[in-house]
TrEMBL record:
Listed InterPro entries: Oxoglu/Fe-dep_dioxygenase_dom (IPR005123), Phytyl_CoA_dOase-like (IPR008775)
Presence of keyword Metal-binding: yes
Known cofactor(s): Fe(2+)
Name of this protein: Phytanoyl-CoA dioxygenase family protein
Organism expressing this protein natively: Variovorax ureilyticus
Phylogenetic placement of the source organism: Bacteria, Pseudomonadati, Pseudomonadota, Betaproteobacteria, Burkholderiales
Domain of life, source organism: Bacteria
Domain Fe2OG dioxygenase: 88-220
Keywords: Dioxygenase, Iron, Metal-binding, Oxidoreductase
Gene Ontology molecular functions: dioxygenase activity
Family: Belongs to the iron/ascorbate-dependent oxidoreductase family.
Protein backbone atom coordinates (compact mmCIF):
# COMPACT_ATOMS: atom_id res chain seq x y z
CA UNK A 1 0.00 0.00 0.00
CA UNK A 2 1.18 3.48 -0.81
CA UNK A 3 -0.40 5.28 2.15
CA UNK A 4 1.97 7.44 4.22
CA UNK A 5 2.67 5.96 7.64
CA UNK A 6 2.02 8.03 10.76
CA UNK A 7 5.79 8.53 11.15
CA UNK A 8 6.14 9.68 7.54
CA UNK A 9 3.34 12.17 7.99
CA UNK A 10 4.86 13.50 11.22
CA UNK A 11 8.17 13.87 9.46
CA UNK A 12 6.50 15.81 6.60
CA UNK A 13 4.77 18.14 9.06
CA UNK A 14 7.96 18.76 11.05
CA UNK A 15 10.53 18.91 8.28
CA UNK A 16 8.47 20.07 5.28
CA UNK A 17 9.44 17.02 3.25
CA UNK A 18 9.50 13.26 3.44
CA UNK A 19 10.86 10.29 1.49
CA UNK A 20 8.13 7.65 1.82
CA UNK A 21 8.79 3.93 1.75
CA UNK A 22 6.53 3.56 -1.29
CA UNK A 23 8.30 3.47 -4.65
CA UNK A 24 7.26 2.91 -8.24
CA UNK A 25 7.44 -0.67 -9.47
CA UNK A 26 10.56 -1.33 -11.51
CA UNK A 27 8.71 -1.80 -14.82
CA UNK A 28 6.82 1.44 -14.37
CA UNK A 29 10.04 3.33 -13.76
CA UNK A 30 11.53 1.86 -16.94
CA UNK A 31 8.37 2.77 -18.87
CA UNK A 32 8.50 6.36 -17.57
CA UNK A 33 12.17 6.66 -18.50
CA UNK A 34 11.24 5.65 -22.04
CA UNK A 35 8.41 8.20 -21.99
CA UNK A 36 10.99 10.77 -20.91
CA UNK A 37 13.31 9.90 -23.80
CA UNK A 38 10.35 10.33 -26.18
CA UNK A 39 9.39 13.63 -24.50
CA UNK A 40 12.91 14.94 -25.04
CA UNK A 41 12.81 13.83 -28.69
CA UNK A 42 9.50 15.67 -29.15
CA UNK A 43 10.97 18.88 -27.74
CA UNK A 44 14.34 19.44 -29.39
CA UNK A 45 14.19 23.20 -28.79
CA UNK A 46 13.47 22.99 -25.06
CA UNK A 47 16.06 22.53 -22.34
CA UNK A 48 15.18 19.25 -20.56
CA UNK A 49 15.19 21.05 -17.18
CA UNK A 50 12.26 23.17 -18.42
CA UNK A 51 9.71 20.59 -19.56
CA UNK A 52 6.77 22.37 -17.99
CA UNK A 53 3.27 20.84 -18.19
CA UNK A 54 4.73 17.67 -19.67
CA UNK A 55 1.48 15.93 -18.68
CA UNK A 56 -0.59 17.76 -21.30
CA UNK A 57 -0.56 15.66 -24.46
CA UNK A 58 0.46 17.46 -27.66
CA UNK A 59 1.09 21.21 -27.94
CA UNK A 60 0.38 22.34 -24.40
CA UNK A 61 0.32 26.09 -25.09
CA UNK A 62 3.31 26.54 -22.78
CA UNK A 63 6.00 25.77 -25.34
CA UNK A 64 6.18 22.02 -24.75
CA UNK A 65 4.73 19.00 -26.56
CA UNK A 66 3.62 16.86 -23.65
CA UNK A 67 2.82 13.19 -23.19
CA UNK A 68 -0.15 11.39 -21.67
CA UNK A 69 2.23 9.03 -19.83
CA UNK A 70 2.97 11.83 -17.36
CA UNK A 71 -0.72 12.54 -16.76
CA UNK A 72 -1.25 8.85 -16.13
CA UNK A 73 1.59 8.93 -13.59
CA UNK A 74 0.09 11.96 -11.87
CA UNK A 75 -3.30 10.21 -11.63
CA UNK A 76 -1.85 6.91 -10.47
CA UNK A 77 -4.00 5.79 -7.52
CA UNK A 78 -0.91 5.02 -5.43
CA UNK A 79 0.49 8.53 -5.83
CA UNK A 80 -2.91 10.09 -5.19
CA UNK A 81 -3.21 8.03 -2.03
CA UNK A 82 0.23 9.18 -0.87
CA UNK A 83 -0.48 12.85 -1.42
CA UNK A 84 -3.92 12.54 0.19
CA UNK A 85 -2.12 11.64 3.41
CA UNK A 86 -0.84 15.22 3.42
CA UNK A 87 -3.65 17.15 1.71
CA UNK A 88 -6.76 15.27 2.81
CA UNK A 89 -9.48 13.61 0.76
CA UNK A 90 -10.10 16.37 -1.79
CA UNK A 91 -7.20 16.81 -4.15
CA UNK A 92 -6.59 18.70 -7.39
CA UNK A 93 -3.73 18.00 -9.78
CA UNK A 94 -2.70 21.36 -11.22
CA UNK A 95 0.86 20.97 -12.54
CA UNK A 96 3.72 18.77 -13.68
CA UNK A 97 7.27 19.88 -14.41
CA UNK A 98 9.95 17.47 -15.60
CA UNK A 99 13.35 18.57 -14.29
CA UNK A 100 15.76 16.51 -16.36
CA UNK A 101 19.39 17.47 -15.85
CA UNK A 102 21.55 15.97 -18.57
CA UNK A 103 24.95 14.55 -17.73
CA UNK A 104 27.77 17.05 -17.96
CA UNK A 105 25.88 20.33 -18.11
CA UNK A 106 22.63 19.96 -16.14
CA UNK A 107 21.52 23.35 -14.88
CA UNK A 108 21.60 24.42 -11.24
CA UNK A 109 18.28 24.99 -9.45
CA UNK A 110 18.73 28.09 -7.29
CA UNK A 111 17.52 27.99 -3.68
CA UNK A 112 13.84 28.93 -3.73
CA UNK A 113 10.37 28.44 -2.33
CA UNK A 114 7.81 27.19 -4.82
CA UNK A 115 4.86 29.38 -3.99
CA UNK A 116 6.12 32.70 -5.23
CA UNK A 117 4.62 32.65 -8.72
CA UNK A 118 1.63 30.36 -8.22
CA UNK A 119 -1.95 31.72 -8.41
CA UNK A 120 -3.29 29.53 -5.60
CA UNK A 121 -5.19 31.07 -2.68
CA UNK A 122 -4.87 30.17 0.12
CA UNK A 123 -1.40 29.13 -1.01
CA UNK A 124 -1.05 25.37 -0.61
CA UNK A 125 0.61 22.62 -2.63
CA UNK A 126 2.36 19.35 -2.04
CA UNK A 127 4.83 18.34 -4.75
CA UNK A 128 5.58 14.69 -5.37
CA UNK A 129 9.06 14.53 -6.95
CA UNK A 130 9.50 11.16 -8.65
CA UNK A 131 13.07 10.11 -9.47
CA UNK A 132 13.36 8.41 -12.86
CA UNK A 133 17.08 7.86 -12.34
CA UNK A 134 19.19 7.57 -9.22
CA UNK A 135 19.47 11.07 -7.81
CA UNK A 136 22.27 11.71 -5.32
CA UNK A 137 24.85 14.24 -4.19
CA UNK A 138 27.01 13.27 -7.17
CA UNK A 139 24.52 14.25 -9.89
CA UNK A 140 22.69 17.20 -8.38
CA UNK A 141 19.93 15.73 -6.22
CA UNK A 142 17.31 17.93 -4.61
CA UNK A 143 18.57 19.66 -1.44
CA UNK A 144 16.24 20.88 1.27
CA UNK A 145 16.34 23.08 4.35
CA UNK A 146 14.40 20.97 6.86
CA UNK A 147 11.86 22.94 8.89
CA UNK A 148 12.07 26.02 6.66
CA UNK A 149 8.36 25.71 5.80
CA UNK A 150 7.24 26.20 9.40
CA UNK A 151 6.74 29.95 9.42
CA UNK A 152 4.52 29.60 6.32
CA UNK A 153 6.07 32.75 4.94
CA UNK A 154 7.52 33.53 1.53
CA UNK A 155 10.90 35.23 1.71
CA UNK A 156 12.24 37.71 -0.83
CA UNK A 157 13.55 36.23 -4.04
CA UNK A 158 15.96 37.98 -6.39
CA UNK A 159 15.62 37.66 -10.14
CA UNK A 160 18.62 36.32 -12.06
CA UNK A 161 18.96 36.70 -15.80
CA UNK A 162 21.44 33.84 -16.22
CA UNK A 163 20.33 31.32 -18.84
CA UNK A 164 22.02 28.33 -17.18
CA UNK A 165 19.51 27.99 -14.32
CA UNK A 166 16.33 25.91 -14.16
CA UNK A 167 14.48 28.85 -12.55
CA UNK A 168 15.30 32.55 -12.63
CA UNK A 169 14.53 33.16 -8.93
CA UNK A 170 16.91 32.81 -6.02
CA UNK A 171 16.31 33.41 -2.35
CA UNK A 172 17.94 36.57 -1.09
CA UNK A 173 21.21 35.88 0.75
CA UNK A 174 20.87 35.65 4.52
CA UNK A 175 17.36 34.21 4.56
CA UNK A 176 18.53 30.76 5.61
CA UNK A 177 21.58 28.78 6.66
CA UNK A 178 22.87 26.61 3.83
CA UNK A 179 24.89 24.55 6.32
CA UNK A 180 21.64 22.96 7.49
CA UNK A 181 20.82 21.58 4.01
CA UNK A 182 19.99 17.89 3.60
CA UNK A 183 20.51 15.90 0.40
CA UNK A 184 17.38 14.11 -0.80
CA UNK A 185 19.01 11.03 -2.25
CA UNK A 186 16.64 8.76 -4.15
CA UNK A 187 17.05 5.59 -6.16
CA UNK A 188 15.21 5.41 -9.49
CA UNK A 189 11.51 4.91 -8.72
CA UNK A 190 11.71 6.46 -5.25
CA UNK A 191 10.05 9.81 -4.57
CA UNK A 192 9.96 12.67 -2.12
CA UNK A 193 7.11 14.96 -1.09
CA UNK A 194 7.66 18.62 -0.28
CA UNK A 195 5.65 21.56 1.01
CA UNK A 196 5.08 24.77 -0.94
CA UNK A 197 6.89 26.86 1.70
CA UNK A 198 9.96 24.67 2.07
CA UNK A 199 13.30 26.07 0.87
CA UNK A 200 15.05 23.83 -1.66
CA UNK A 201 17.42 23.81 -4.61
CA UNK A 202 19.87 21.57 -6.45
CA UNK A 203 23.44 21.82 -7.69
CA UNK A 204 24.37 21.69 -11.36
CA UNK A 205 24.85 18.19 -12.74
CA UNK A 206 28.46 17.93 -13.84
CA UNK A 207 28.56 14.13 -13.46
CA UNK A 208 28.35 11.63 -16.29
CA UNK A 209 24.88 10.47 -15.13
CA UNK A 210 21.55 12.03 -16.10
CA UNK A 211 19.30 13.11 -13.21
CA UNK A 212 15.54 13.40 -13.66
CA UNK A 213 12.71 14.27 -11.33
CA UNK A 214 9.07 14.51 -12.36
CA UNK A 215 7.53 17.16 -10.11
CA UNK A 216 3.79 16.56 -9.76
CA UNK A 217 1.88 19.41 -8.11
CA UNK A 218 -1.28 18.84 -6.08
CA UNK A 219 -3.39 21.24 -4.04
CA UNK A 220 -6.26 20.71 -1.61
CA UNK A 221 -9.60 21.64 -3.19
CA UNK A 222 -10.21 24.04 -0.30
CA UNK A 223 -7.82 26.33 -2.20
CA UNK A 224 -8.65 28.07 -5.46
CA UNK A 225 -6.54 28.15 -8.59
CA UNK A 226 -7.29 31.80 -9.29
CA UNK A 227 -6.94 32.44 -13.00
CA UNK A 228 -7.43 36.17 -12.54
CA UNK A 229 -4.06 36.44 -10.77
CA UNK A 230 -1.03 37.07 -12.96
CA UNK A 231 1.86 36.56 -10.58
CA UNK A 232 4.41 35.43 -13.15
CA UNK A 233 5.04 38.21 -15.67
CA UNK A 234 7.83 36.15 -17.23
CA UNK A 235 9.87 36.33 -14.05
CA UNK A 236 10.10 32.66 -13.14
CA UNK A 237 12.30 31.71 -16.09
CA UNK A 238 9.79 29.15 -17.40
CA UNK A 239 6.96 30.17 -19.75
CA UNK A 240 3.57 29.26 -18.29
CA UNK A 241 -0.07 30.02 -19.06
CA UNK A 242 -2.03 29.73 -15.83
CA UNK A 243 -5.20 31.09 -17.47
CA UNK A 244 -5.39 27.97 -19.68
CA UNK A 245 -3.82 25.45 -17.30
CA UNK A 246 -6.15 22.43 -16.95
CA UNK A 247 -7.08 21.14 -13.50
CA UNK A 248 -7.96 17.56 -12.66
CA UNK A 249 -9.91 16.61 -9.57
CA UNK A 250 -8.08 13.41 -8.70
CA UNK A 251 -9.88 12.70 -5.43
CA UNK A 252 -13.04 13.83 -3.64
CA UNK A 253 -14.96 16.99 -4.48
CA UNK A 254 -14.19 20.68 -5.07
CA UNK A 255 -14.63 21.97 -1.50
CA UNK A 256 -14.10 25.62 -2.50
CA UNK A 257 -16.76 25.38 -5.20
CA UNK A 258 -14.74 27.95 -7.15
CA UNK A 259 -12.25 25.92 -9.18
CA UNK A 260 -12.67 25.90 -12.94
CA UNK A 261 -12.21 22.40 -14.33
CA UNK A 262 -13.11 23.22 -17.92
CA UNK A 263 -10.43 25.78 -18.87
CA UNK A 264 -7.62 24.33 -20.92
CA UNK A 265 -9.23 20.94 -21.51
CA UNK A 266 -9.71 19.97 -25.13
CA UNK A 267 -13.25 19.13 -26.12
O1 LIG B 1 14.63 19.07 -9.58
C1 LIG B 1 15.05 20.19 -9.36
O2 LIG B 1 16.23 20.52 -9.58
C2 LIG B 1 14.14 21.24 -8.80
C3 LIG B 1 12.80 20.74 -8.41
C4 LIG B 1 11.95 21.76 -7.76
O3 LIG B 1 12.33 22.86 -7.52
C5 LIG B 1 10.56 21.38 -7.43
O4 LIG B 1 10.15 20.25 -7.70
O5 LIG B 1 9.84 22.22 -6.88
FE1 LIG C 1 10.81 23.98 -6.48
Amino acid sequence: MAQLTADELTSYRNEGWVRPAYRLPHDRTTFMREALDELIRRNPGVRPEKLVSAHIEGDNGEGVHGSAAFLELARDPALVELVSGVLGDDVILWGCHVFCKPAGDGYETPWHQDGHYWPIRPLATCTVWVALEDSDAGNGCLRVIPGSHKERRLHDHLHEDRTDLTLAQRLAPGTFDEDTAADVELAAGQMSLHDVYMIHGARANTSNRRRTGVALRYMPSTSVFDRSLRPVDGKSGVPVDFARRPLWLVRGVDRSGCNDFSAGHRR
